């Protein structure tokens, strides 16, 4: 009698044990290059998988989150910043563990634990939606309380002789997600005397 830890299951047995349809299991197997599906053992024409290894892989796969869910963890209202960061990651940003469309590097997914760790430990963040004031509604400046303004002031102080394009490049590296035109406006505000 074999012990349960070395038990091998056929696709039909995996379907019965884990509640998936055979079609879903076939799709997961076909996408194994993108999703890390465990290797199979071939016994004649039948494929079998290690029961424990497959169950652990499936638990990990079910804990994957999309870019939209990752964005919510970071306090963003849309996933565009996360999608950009998947391809051009800022420091400490976790690599996706799976791509819905690996050939075109689209629809990335991350382990929830990796995304949460990044959200908890990152040093620079974009303000939540609506955190800045609208232009014309002056409370000091249109970026009062915005961490991007603080960062822009720091960059200007540390690199006073650099061209604005280089400032924007530095700012984008440190805090990606804002357009060059937005950084230009923030830099203009940062150059003005601070108001109490």
Characterize the structure shown.
The protein contains ten helices and six strands. The protein has 196 residues and is α+β, with helices and mostly antiparallel strands. A three-stranded antiparallel sheet has the order 1-3-2. It has a three-stranded antiparallel sheet with strand order 4-6-5.
Quick description:
This protein has 196 residues and is of the alpha+beta class. It has helices at residues 11-18, 22-30, 32-35, 51-62, 67-74, 80-87, 112-121, 147-158, 164-174, 180-191; strands spanning 8-10, 41-43, 46-50, 64-66, 98-101, 106-111.
Jot down its keywords.
single chain, alpha+beta, three-stranded antiparallel sheet
Report strand order across the widest sheet.
1-3-2
Strand content: 5-15%
**Count of alpha and pi helical runs:** 10
Low-confidence stretches: 125-140
* Rounded mean pLDDT score: 81
The run of helices and strands is EHHHEEHEHHEEHHHH
Give the arrangement of secondary structure elements.
Elements: E1 8-10, H1 11-18, H2 22-30, H3 32-35, E2 41-43, E3 46-50, H4 51-62, E4 64-66, H5 67-74, H6 80-87, E5 98-101, E6 106-111, H7 112-121, H8 147-158, H9 164-174, H10 180-191
Antiparallel strand pairs: 1-3, 2-3, 4-6, 5-6
Helix pairs in contact: 5-6, 8-10, 9-10
